[in-house]
Every structure is written in C-alpha cells, then in structure tokens.
Write a structure and sequence with these properties.
- By secondary structure, the protein is an alpha/beta fold.
- It folds into 2 domains: 62 residues, Alpha-Beta Plaits; 250 residues, TIM Barrel, CATH 3.20.20.
- The longest helix is centred in the last third of the chain and has 18 residues.
- The structure holds phosphoenolpyruvate and manganese (II) ion.
- Phosphoenolpyruvate binds next to loops.
Length: 333
C-alpha cells in the first residue's frame, strides 16, 4: 500500500503518521520527492483502514500495491533512483559506460584496457576476478590477486570498478570494491542476495539466463528489503530457441523495467550476443531504448583472451562505438 501525502506537510505531522503506521506492525519506506512524499507500507496491510487513512488531513491519496515487489516498485519511489558508485552517478538521466575485459588476466592487461577505455570516455571499469564458468576445466579467474590488479588499474586511471562476487564467503575481500556484481547464474541465490542487503555498496544485479522480469525484480527486492537500496539492474540476454547468438537481447525489458521500477537499468550487449561484430548495433539500440548505461567487454588482445574473446571489442572498436553512443544520447536529450 502507498500513502501519498499532501504537498507541504510539516515534518511533525509526517512523523506522527509514520509512528502510527509502524505501531500497526508495518515497515514504512519514505520517499521524499521534489513535489510529493510517498510512504510505502510493507507488511500485512490488511488491518489498515484505507478509508480512515485517506480521510486524514495530510493525506492526498491511498493505493494498494498489488505487485509482490515493493521496495523496487516505482509506485513506492516515483522518481528515478540515482546510484552513486565511486563518484559516478548512474540513473535519472545519468548515463554510465562500463567497459573492460571479461576477466582480469594480468596487471599489464587490466591497466592497458583501463587506460584505453578511460581515454574513450568510460565511467567505470569492469573485470572479473572470480568467474562463473560453464566448464570446471576453464579459467575461473585469478581470484583475490585479480581484485588487487583492479585496484592498481583504478589507481592508474581513476576509474571505479565493477566486479563479480560469487560466494558470500569472499565478501571481506570485496571491502574496497566500488560496485559488486551479481552474475546471471546467481540471480536467484537468495542467501547471497540477503547478505548483500547488509552491504554499503551499489549492487549490479544481472538478469538470469531464463528469468522473467518479475523474478529479476523479486531478486532486487531481496537486496533492498534487507537494507541496501542501491541496486542497478542489467539486461544481458536470455535463453530462447535461437542459437545463432549466445542469448537473445530483450530490449523491451528496458522500457518495461523503467515503468515498473525506479532502479537504473543497464544493458550488456556482449553477453547478450556473444559476437563482437553484433555488439555495436545492440549497444546503440539499447541506448536508443533508454537504457541508463551499457556494460561492454573490451580486451586489448581478444584472440588470446582467457574468457569471452569472441564477444570482446578491441579498444579502437570500443572508441568508435562510444562516440556513436554519445551521438545518440545527444539526440535523446
Ligand atoms: C560477466 O559479466 O562477467 C558475466 C559472467 O556475465 P553474466 O553473469 O551475465 O553471464
Ligand atoms: Mn564475459
């Protein structure tokens, strides 16, 4: 249920109403917007007399929220969420370019790629130190030393970085990470999501390989209901019957999620297609569809990449793409 307050309500009256609702055993999420304050009520609202609340002098309207997701529901928070990550703003008109290799391989590699993408205007660096691989025989990342190399690349370029956490036991190693990524395969690892609700860092939550948008939002809800509201969503392609591309990019997810939720929505055209030559067109389409940012794999030597070389752009290709993305953004403003 949401309670929209009238414009100009005094803080005292607002506080009184909130304590009264809390005494009914509800959790109250307060969203103070520029023009209105919205109270989101979480819990068993069946005992709340809607007519009574609506009749209060300070209340403008009361609505039931039928969706199972509350904290990530735009009805709870009408204004776009702006997530700040290492000094970079994402969402609410702030477009973020995240770029870097699939996995961190060496200091030379990550620093070279970080320098290149920075020169092309990237806002954040990406790179996996802990990699979820389909085969147990494939390179699974450098682990903790990989995180140290990301920190070196950050120190060299000033770019904050995003990196994936697979196991909650590794959380302590992520203390100095700017954004924690939850990969597609872990989107429904509910214990992990709950733990990330206690972390004071932005979380980039990728859509699972075969998950609905509602399931993605319910996973965001796990993190937010546990206390961390700095969540960003990422569409990275889903499984369909076609196998020419690695996955099928669900672009309609962008406007649909923006309607349902106030969280920033990013698009990863690299994992969505699996083919480097398709990445630019899908990145441009995602930009035009209104995404809040792009996450793109870039490698300085894709042919010899230890992971996902086939879908990685070379730095010069990324640079050309980044220019076109900026052109599209200009047209959209
Ligand atoms: C990644 O971004 O490195 C990754 C493994 O992607 P996904 O979880 O979307 O497969
Ligand atoms: Mn990858």
């Amino acid at each position: 249920m949401i309670v929209v307050l009238k414009h100009g309500v005094t803080p005292d009256k607002k506080k009184q109403l909130i304590s009264w609702l809390q005494n009914l055993g509800l959790r109250i999420h307060v969203s103070d917007g520029e023009f209105q304050t919205v109270l989101g009520l979480v819990g068993d609202t069946s005992s709340v007399d809607m007519d009574l609340v609506e009749s209060l002098e300070i209340v403008d309207s009361v609505k039931r929220v039928t969706e199972p997701f509350k904290f990530c529901n735009r009805k709870f928070h009408p204004e776009d969420l702006v997530v700040e990550a290492g000094g970079v703003k994402i969402g609410g008109g702030n477009f973020a370019m995240i770029a870097g290799p699939c996995s961190v391989e060496s200091e030379e590699q990550i620093v070279a790629v970080a320098r290149a993408v920075k020169a092309s205007g990237a806002d954040l660096l990406r790179g996996g130190a802990f990699k979820p691989r389909t085969s147990p025989y494939d390179f699974a990342g450098l682990g903790a030393p990989g995180l140290e190399l990301l920190k070196i690349a950050r120190a060299e370029t000033g770019l904050p970085f995003v990196t994936e956490l697979m196991n909650i036991m590794d959380l302590d190693l992520f203390a100095d990470v700017d954004v924690i990524q939850v990969g597609a395969r872990n989107m429904q690892n509910y214990d992990l999501l709950r733990e990330l609700g206690h972390v004071d860092k932005p979380i980039l939550l990728k859509r699972g390989l075969a998950n609905t948008l509602k399931e993605l939002l319910m996973s965001a809800e796990y993190i937010m209901a546990s206390g961390n509201e700095r969540v960003m969503l990422c569409e990275r392609g889903i499984r369909t019957f076609d196998d020419y591309t690695r996955n099928t990019l669900d672009l309609a997810a962008v406007p649909m999620l923006q309607e349902l939720s106030h969280l920033p929505i990013l698009v990863d055209p690299s994992h969505a297609t699996g083919i480097a030559r398709l990445v630019p067109s899908m990145a441009l389409a995602a930009t035009a569809a209104g995404a809040d940012g792009l996450m793109i794999e870039v490698h300085n030597d894709p042919i010899h990449a230890m992971c996902d070389g086939a879908q990685s752009l070379r730095p010069d290709e990324y640079d050309a793409l980044a220019r076109k993305v900026r052109d599209i953004r200009e047209l959209m403003i």
